[in-house]
Amino acid sequence: MDVTTEYALAFALTTTAGLRGFLALLIASLAAHAGWIHLNASYAWLGSDGASIVLAIFAVLEMLADKIPVIDNALHLIYFIVRPTAAAILVGGTVHAPNQTELIGLMVIGALNAFVVHGASAAARAASTASTLGVANSTMSLGEDIVAIGGGALAIAMPVLAASLAVAFLVVLLLFARRLSRRVNAVAAEDEIRS
What we know:
Layout: H1 3-19, H2 21-34, H3 49-65, H4 71-94, H5 100-132, H6 137-157, H7 159-194
Helix pairs in contact: 1-2, 1-4, 1-5, 1-6, 1-7, 2-3, 2-4, 2-6, 4-5, 5-7, 6-7
Protein backbone atom coordinates (compact mmCIF):
# COMPACT_ATOMS: atom_id res chain seq x y z
CA MET A 1 0.00 0.00 0.00
CA ASP A 2 1.48 3.38 -0.96
CA VAL A 3 1.73 6.34 1.42
CA THR A 4 -1.28 8.20 -0.02
CA THR A 5 -3.47 5.13 0.35
CA GLU A 6 -2.25 4.52 3.92
CA TYR A 7 -3.02 8.11 4.91
CA ALA A 8 -6.41 7.94 3.20
CA LEU A 9 -7.20 4.68 5.01
CA ALA A 10 -6.17 6.17 8.34
CA PHE A 11 -8.19 9.35 7.78
CA ALA A 12 -11.32 7.44 6.76
CA LEU A 13 -11.00 5.08 9.73
CA THR A 14 -10.43 7.91 12.21
CA THR A 15 -13.50 9.68 10.88
CA THR A 16 -15.44 6.45 11.41
CA ALA A 17 -13.95 6.19 14.90
CA GLY A 18 -15.41 9.60 15.69
CA LEU A 19 -18.84 8.02 15.30
CA ARG A 20 -18.19 4.48 16.53
CA GLY A 21 -14.77 3.90 18.08
CA PHE A 22 -15.07 0.20 18.83
CA LEU A 23 -16.69 -0.50 15.46
CA ALA A 24 -13.84 1.23 13.61
CA LEU A 25 -11.31 -0.84 15.56
CA LEU A 26 -13.32 -3.99 14.82
CA ILE A 27 -13.36 -3.22 11.09
CA ALA A 28 -9.58 -2.76 11.10
CA SER A 29 -9.17 -5.91 13.19
CA LEU A 30 -11.22 -8.02 10.81
CA ALA A 31 -9.48 -6.53 7.76
CA ALA A 32 -6.07 -7.28 9.26
CA HIS A 33 -7.17 -10.78 10.24
CA ALA A 34 -8.31 -11.38 6.64
CA GLY A 35 -5.04 -9.98 5.26
CA TRP A 36 -6.67 -6.99 3.56
CA ILE A 37 -4.56 -4.51 5.51
CA HIS A 38 -1.13 -4.92 7.06
CA LEU A 39 -0.65 -3.57 10.55
CA ASN A 40 2.56 -2.20 12.02
CA ALA A 41 4.32 -4.88 14.07
CA SER A 42 3.60 -3.18 17.40
CA TYR A 43 -0.14 -3.19 16.56
CA ALA A 44 -0.29 -6.76 15.23
CA TRP A 45 -2.41 -7.67 18.28
CA LEU A 46 -5.27 -5.73 16.66
CA GLY A 47 -5.63 -8.46 14.01
CA SER A 48 -5.75 -11.33 16.52
CA ASP A 49 -8.78 -13.54 17.16
CA GLY A 50 -8.98 -12.32 20.75
CA ALA A 51 -8.98 -8.66 19.74
CA SER A 52 -11.65 -9.29 17.10
CA ILE A 53 -13.91 -11.03 19.62
CA VAL A 54 -13.50 -8.40 22.33
CA LEU A 55 -13.97 -5.55 19.84
CA ALA A 56 -17.08 -7.22 18.37
CA ILE A 57 -18.64 -7.40 21.84
CA PHE A 58 -17.81 -3.78 22.61
CA ALA A 59 -18.95 -2.60 19.17
CA VAL A 60 -22.36 -4.24 19.65
CA LEU A 61 -22.67 -2.80 23.17
CA GLU A 62 -21.63 0.64 21.86
CA MET A 63 -24.32 0.57 19.16
CA LEU A 64 -27.06 -0.78 21.45
CA ALA A 65 -26.36 1.59 24.34
CA ASP A 66 -26.44 4.53 21.95
CA LYS A 67 -30.12 3.82 21.28
CA ILE A 68 -31.19 4.21 24.93
CA PRO A 69 -32.27 7.75 25.92
CA VAL A 70 -30.25 9.39 28.71
CA ILE A 71 -27.61 6.64 28.54
CA ASP A 72 -26.64 7.80 25.06
CA ASN A 73 -25.92 11.33 26.27
CA ALA A 74 -23.97 10.08 29.29
CA LEU A 75 -21.85 7.81 27.09
CA HIS A 76 -21.07 10.68 24.75
CA LEU A 77 -19.03 12.21 27.57
CA ILE A 78 -16.97 9.03 27.94
CA TYR A 79 -16.58 8.77 24.17
CA PHE A 80 -14.69 12.09 24.14
CA ILE A 81 -11.81 9.96 25.46
CA VAL A 82 -12.56 6.56 23.91
CA ARG A 83 -13.05 7.60 20.29
CA PRO A 84 -9.91 9.74 19.90
CA THR A 85 -7.96 6.93 21.58
CA ALA A 86 -9.40 4.44 19.09
CA ALA A 87 -8.44 6.79 16.26
CA ALA A 88 -4.85 7.06 17.53
CA ILE A 89 -4.63 3.26 17.66
CA LEU A 90 -5.98 3.04 14.11
CA VAL A 91 -3.37 5.46 12.80
CA GLY A 92 -0.61 3.72 14.75
CA GLY A 93 -1.65 0.41 13.30
CA THR A 94 -2.23 1.38 9.67
CA VAL A 95 0.33 4.08 8.85
CA HIS A 96 3.89 2.91 8.26
CA ALA A 97 5.65 6.20 9.02
CA PRO A 98 9.39 6.56 8.48
CA ASN A 99 10.01 7.31 12.17
CA GLN A 100 8.31 7.20 15.56
CA THR A 101 8.07 11.00 15.90
CA GLU A 102 6.13 11.31 12.65
CA LEU A 103 3.87 8.41 13.61
CA ILE A 104 3.05 10.00 16.97
CA GLY A 105 2.25 13.29 15.23
CA LEU A 106 -0.07 11.48 12.82
CA MET A 107 -1.70 9.63 15.71
CA VAL A 108 -2.43 12.97 17.39
CA ILE A 109 -3.94 14.31 14.15
CA GLY A 110 -6.09 11.17 13.84
CA ALA A 111 -7.23 11.55 17.44
CA LEU A 112 -8.13 15.19 16.81
CA ASN A 113 -10.12 14.20 13.73
CA ALA A 114 -12.15 11.69 15.75
CA PHE A 115 -12.54 14.29 18.52
CA VAL A 116 -13.99 16.83 16.07
CA VAL A 117 -16.32 14.27 14.48
CA HIS A 118 -17.47 13.07 17.88
CA GLY A 119 -17.86 16.65 19.13
CA ALA A 120 -20.08 17.55 16.18
CA SER A 121 -22.07 14.35 16.61
CA ALA A 122 -22.47 14.94 20.37
CA ALA A 123 -23.55 18.55 19.75
CA ALA A 124 -26.13 17.38 17.22
CA ARG A 125 -27.32 14.75 19.69
CA ALA A 126 -27.60 17.31 22.51
CA ALA A 127 -29.54 19.66 20.23
CA SER A 128 -31.80 16.78 19.21
CA THR A 129 -32.38 15.91 22.85
CA ALA A 130 -33.30 19.50 23.63
CA SER A 131 -35.58 19.96 20.63
CA THR A 132 -37.25 16.51 20.48
CA LEU A 133 -36.84 15.40 24.11
CA GLY A 134 -34.65 12.57 22.83
CA VAL A 135 -37.28 11.09 20.51
CA ALA A 136 -35.07 11.53 17.42
CA ASN A 137 -31.87 10.32 19.10
CA SER A 138 -32.24 6.63 18.29
CA THR A 139 -32.93 7.49 14.65
CA MET A 140 -29.80 9.67 14.59
CA SER A 141 -27.89 6.82 16.23
CA LEU A 142 -29.05 4.37 13.57
CA GLY A 143 -27.91 6.82 10.90
CA GLU A 144 -24.50 7.04 12.59
CA ASP A 145 -24.32 3.23 12.65
CA ILE A 146 -25.00 3.05 8.92
CA VAL A 147 -22.46 5.76 8.12
CA ALA A 148 -19.84 4.14 10.36
CA ILE A 149 -20.32 0.65 8.93
CA GLY A 150 -20.40 1.92 5.34
CA GLY A 151 -17.50 4.30 5.90
CA GLY A 152 -15.39 1.65 7.57
CA ALA A 153 -16.06 -0.93 4.86
CA LEU A 154 -15.35 1.62 2.14
CA ALA A 155 -12.13 2.65 3.93
CA ILE A 156 -10.86 -0.91 3.61
CA ALA A 157 -12.06 -1.44 0.02
CA MET A 158 -11.35 2.00 -1.48
CA PRO A 159 -9.37 4.16 0.95
CA VAL A 160 -8.93 7.25 -1.24
CA LEU A 161 -12.63 7.43 -2.11
CA ALA A 162 -13.52 6.82 1.54
CA ALA A 163 -11.21 9.64 2.67
CA SER A 164 -12.77 12.02 0.13
CA LEU A 165 -16.23 11.13 1.36
CA ALA A 166 -15.03 11.46 4.96
CA VAL A 167 -14.01 15.06 4.29
CA ALA A 168 -17.44 15.78 2.79
CA PHE A 169 -19.14 14.02 5.70
CA LEU A 170 -17.14 16.04 8.21
CA VAL A 171 -18.16 19.32 6.57
CA VAL A 172 -21.85 18.30 6.44
CA LEU A 173 -21.76 17.07 10.05
CA LEU A 174 -20.26 20.32 11.29
CA LEU A 175 -22.81 22.39 9.36
CA PHE A 176 -25.67 20.21 10.66
CA ALA A 177 -24.47 20.50 14.27
CA ARG A 178 -24.16 24.27 13.89
CA ARG A 179 -27.67 24.53 12.42
CA LEU A 180 -29.22 22.40 15.17
CA SER A 181 -27.40 24.37 17.84
CA ARG A 182 -28.68 27.65 16.45
CA ARG A 183 -32.21 26.24 16.33
CA VAL A 184 -32.06 25.16 19.97
CA ASN A 185 -30.67 28.56 20.98
CA ALA A 186 -33.48 30.32 19.09
CA VAL A 187 -36.13 28.19 20.81
CA ALA A 188 -34.53 28.87 24.20
CA ALA A 189 -34.47 32.59 23.49
CA GLU A 190 -38.15 32.53 22.51
CA ASP A 191 -39.02 30.66 25.72
CA GLU A 192 -37.07 33.21 27.76
CA ILE A 193 -38.92 36.12 26.13
CA ARG A 194 -42.30 34.47 26.85
CA SER A 195 -41.51 33.99 30.55
